[in-house]
Amino acid sequence: MLEGRARLGEINRSINLKIKPRSDLSQYGAEDVWSPPLATFARGAGDCEDYAIAKFVALQEVGVSPDDLRIVILRKEVWEEDHAVVAARLDGKWLLLDNLHTIMVEDQSVLTYYRPVF
After folding, report:
1. In the prediction, which pLDDT does 90 show?
2. Contact 102, 12 (CB under 8 A)
3. What is the rounded CA–CA span in Å between residue 11 and residue 32?
């Protein structure tokens, strides 16, 4: 069984590959729908918060403490839109698991193009 960063990376990559990007508007006819992971996997598609919710639950299922997990809403000023990711604390540092990237980055490194909102 994978541990540490390898476990986080495997979950990030697996879920990124399992779900196809699709907006809530095109799927549900609504602007913002937060779906449970099993519903997202059944549809095979979702937007950023659907990826984040699935990763959050998967990480808890493999034993990551809820104290070491957050769903974070970031604002990308250039696009003027919000984006949801999972932050997982490992060895005292917060790593971001993002559906737009397979590589996890530390939270401080994204502050040049994202602003934390919630």
Report:
1. 96
2. yes
3. 24
Q: Where are the domains of the chain?
A: 4-116
Say whether pTM exceeds 0.85. yes
DSSP one-letter string for 39-67: HHHHHTEE-HHHHHHHHHHHHHHTT--GG
Structure tokens at 28: 């549900």
Q: Write out the two tokens for 21.
A: 């990007």
pLDDT digits (tens, 9 = 90+) for 49-65: 999 999 999 999 999 99
For tokens 């986080």, the residue is: 8
Distance CA 118, CA 106 (A): 17
pLDDT of res. 112: 67
DSSP SS3 for 113: coil
CATH architecture of the domain 4-116 equals: Roll (3.10)
**What are the CA-CA distances from residue 16 to residues 45, 67, 69, 74, 114 (Å)?**
10, 23, 18, 18, 20
